[in-house]
Amino acid sequence: MQEMIEIRWHGRGGQGVVTAARLLAEAAMEAGYFIQAFPDYGPERSGAPIRAFTRLSRSPISIHSQVQTPDMVIVLDDTLLGSPLLLEGLKSEGWLVVNSARSPEQVRRQAGGYNGRLALLDATRIALEVLKRNLPNTPLLGALVRLTGLFSLEDLTRHIRHHLAAKFGEEVVRSNLEAVRRGFEEVWIDPGRIASGERPIEAVQSGMALPWFELPRGGLILDAGNAIAYRTGDWRTFRPVVEMEKCTHCLYCWLYCPDDAIQVRGGRFLGFDEAHCKGCGICAAVCPPKAITMVEESRAVAAA
Amino acid sequence: MGRWVALEGTEAVAYAMKQVAPDVVAAYPITPQTGIVQAFAQFVADGEVHTEFLQAESEHSALSACVGAAAAGARAMTATSAQGLALMWEILYIAASMRLPIVMPVVNRALSAPINIHCDHSDSMGARDSGWIQIYSENAQEAYDNTLQAVRIAEHPQVRLPVMVMMDGFITSHAVERLWIEDDDAVRAFVGTYQPACTLLNLERPLTFGALDFYDYYFEHKRHQVEAMRRAKEAILEVAEDFARRFGRRYALFETYRLEDADVAVVVLSSTAGTARVAVDNLRRLGWRVGLLKPRVYRPFPDFELIHALRHVRAIGVMDRAIAFGAMENGGPLWLEVLAAAHRHDLRIPIANYVFGLGGRDITPSEIEGIFTDLMQIAERGTVTRPVTYVGVRGEMPLPTPAEWSLWIPEATMAGD
Ligand code: SF4
Ligand code: SF4
Q1: pLDDT exceeds 50 at position B414
Q2: Which of B99, B208, B216 sits opposite A217 (nearest CB)?
Q3: Do B135 and B298 meet the contact criterion of CB atoms below 8 Å apart?
Q4: Where are the domains of chain A?
Q5: Closest residue to B99, CB basis, from A207, A218, A221
Q6: Which of A67, B17, B279, B379 is exposed most, by the fewest CB atoms within 10 A?
Q7: What is the mean pLDDT of chain B?
């Protein structure tokens, strides 16, 4: 292995991105590596894109900047694939690892025609089947063991047993090990086409364009009320779906929705503002006749 | 025309505030600032000034109310001391970062514990890096004049920063002194009406104030504050110039006294500068070439100008009424700043520190003469052996007296001037 492996994780608030970065690091530590795992904290909102980083090394790690040129970019949510920031700095021989049910061709297309190394795993499905919960981290760990060869499945098994057995019992250990095993076996690996000597994907400077003297003083925002331009709808991992025949137009949902995403006309419930509904599920929780259910976004999109 | 009056320091500042007639004053009383708030509240109650006066439940709330008022486009003021300033801490930074031109007289008082109500500069020195402009006043006249000028400085379009105007607790705040106060109309003409660049209450042009600002913008906004501080120096001089033209009293970034031909000099803030002037005169009578530099503006620190004025002396003594605990040699903040400025501007002479007067401990001309004597010895040796002296603290080695120095160098007593 090279001296140090640097990994950048992408996901959405609530998906366990930070935990995943940490889990991998901890497992690697028990296999004898020096480790670092840290999040890139933003406003901690469910569904908002967030990043985390893992460094694994044979020698002590002293660097404390964010990972600039990752050896591996791991994406926990394939709705993020369109973002230009996703592949930023990825080494030409680096890996893009995606949790997705989609085909490699679809994923490559969504990732802007990415043609480097790609690994795919439907970790969400495995997690739902084996763990009965949407915890894609565990199967992904199995896939990463296979992909990196950093440590063995036995190392990981020992680690999981050590951490879960006392607290959750043998049953939980067994299902987690099963999830890891399936991740290890089911990960789909495509080496892609990498021309030798290809440069890493260029860093994109986002939102950091204005020099200080061109900014309004005192952190003022001159176009107040611009939140509408911010598509919080992109954060959705679940979306509300209404059964109109059950709806009594009580407008509780409108009252409680934190993002003003319930559309109302003439005092009657009309639907959801998809550009701004972030899928928090509050409307579903407060709806008296239970007319709203939350459906996983990717499946809802696929169904549509 | 103005007139001579006999007022306490706090009353002088309250009178200045009445003449400025801010839209909002939000304050909480604390000794020794109380006189300001009390007198001002009286003016409001008597209908002499039409200010929205708000007695908040704490200093934190008082300054928060000023932040809200200033963001709404109002001219806002408050006043405080010691623990009150400490309690305002987080709002200090908010007021400065939001670039709100709030003016706040601070009556310097020691910080607890032990509880003490008397003067030292630990309170305002602790806030020296909060982004506020800091102006120190020697007496009631200066406190009055500085309060008037602070309004113009804070609101200066090139600046837009909050300003603290300091005076020494009890020594200045509670001493009655003769001072000249200007005519109401003349003051009104000098301060003008506040033209906020942008306000919360302008429905035609809604703005967001105090938004979240991460690593992609925060630093740029801080850089903006740096620029405001840089420009403040010029603005302060510009306002002082206009003040002098209208009222005849001249202010600068600092004041010097018999410094031009001095061999050694003392740098000291506020009321003690007045006492030091007496010490300078006493020693001059003995033929000693000693001088004084009194910084008026501490933030922005006039490093270049100050070092330039001190270039010719052979030793400098910086007197601090505060300790920067754990800093180099456990010296005072003013000393550290002068040392840094000397290094920055290639002045290589001995610079010693004299920490004095904590908790209101009196400082006398003869003690300052002791400081000058120490400085003469330092100048002679060309080096500082005791970098920081805690003046008058029981158990510390005392300073030499002028008589001792006369024994050292007999000719020092000979020349008279
Ligand atoms: S809360 Fe439920 S029933 Fe009431 S308006 Fe909303 S969807 Fe309809
Ligand atoms: S899930 Fe419901 S409550 Fe939450 S943002 Fe969407 S519409 Fe509003």
Answers
A1: no
A2: B99
A3: yes
A4: 4-190, 219-303
A5: A218
A6: B379
A7: 95
Ligand 2 site: residues with CB under 6 angstroms?
A 240, 257, 259, 261-262, 272, 277-283
Q: Which two tokens stand for residue B380?
A: 């002679």
CB B113 within 8 A of CB B151: no
Mean pLDDT of B225-246: 98
What residues pair up with A49 in beta bridges, in sequence order? Answer: A12
Please give the CATH number for the structural domain made up of A219-303.
3.30.70.20
State the DSSP string of A97-165. Answer: EEE-SS-HHHHHHHTTS--SEEEEE-HHHHHHHHTSS--THHHHHHHHHHHH-SS-HHHHHHHHHHHHH
Beta-carbon separation of A221 and B208 below 8 A: yes
Between CA B369 and CA B372 the distance in angstroms is: 5
Cβ–Cβ < 8 Å for B174, B33: no
Average pLDDT over residues A4-11: 95
Q: Report the pLDDT averaged over residues B1-26.
A: 97
Closest CA to A124 of A139, A111, A110: A139
Cα B82 off chain centre by: 14
Strands B163-168 and B290-295: unpaired
Question: Which residue in B has a C-alpha nearest to residue A208's C-alpha?
Answer: B216
**What's the CATH number for A4-190?**
3.40.920.10
pLDDT exceeds 60 at position B179: yes
Contact call for A217 and B224, based on CB within 8 A = yes
Q: From CA A97, how far away is CA A192, in angstroms rounded? A: 12
Q: How far lies B200's CA from each of A111, A142, B21, B72, B204, in Å? A: 43, 55, 21, 5, 10
Distance A286 CA to ligand 2 centre (A): 11
User: Residue A296 pLDDT more than 90?
Assistant: no
Residue located nearest, by CA, to atom 8 of ligand 2 = A257
Residues of A with CB under 8 A from a CB of B: 42-43, 207-208, 210-213, 215, 217-222, 224-226
Residue A204 pLDDT class (50, 70, 90 cuts): low
Count CA atoms closer than 13 A to A254's CA, side-chain side.
Answer: 14
Percentage of residues in chain B with pLDDT exceeding 90? 90
Average pLDDT over residues B389-413: 81
The pLDDT score that the predictor gives to residue B212 is: 87
Structure tokens at A233: 């709808």
Domains identified in chain B and CATH numbers: 3-247 (3.40.50.970), 254-416 (3.40.50.920)
Lowest mean pLDDT among B211-225, B255-269, B270-284, B309-323: B211-225
Separation between Cα atoms, residue A65 and residue A222, nearest integer Å: 33
Other Cβ atoms within 10 Å of B226 Cβ, number: 12
B416 band by pLDDT with thresholds 50, 70 and 90? very low
Place A79 in a pLDDT band, splitting at 50, 70 and 90.
Answer: confident
Phi-psi region of A32 (alpha: psi -120 to 50; beta: other; left: phi over 0): left
Q: Is pLDDT of A9 > 90?
A: yes
Q: Are A43 and A65 within 8 A, CB to CB?
A: no
DSSP secondary structure letter of residue B208: B
Question: Backbone phi, then psi, for A222, in 5-degree steps?
Answer: -75, -30
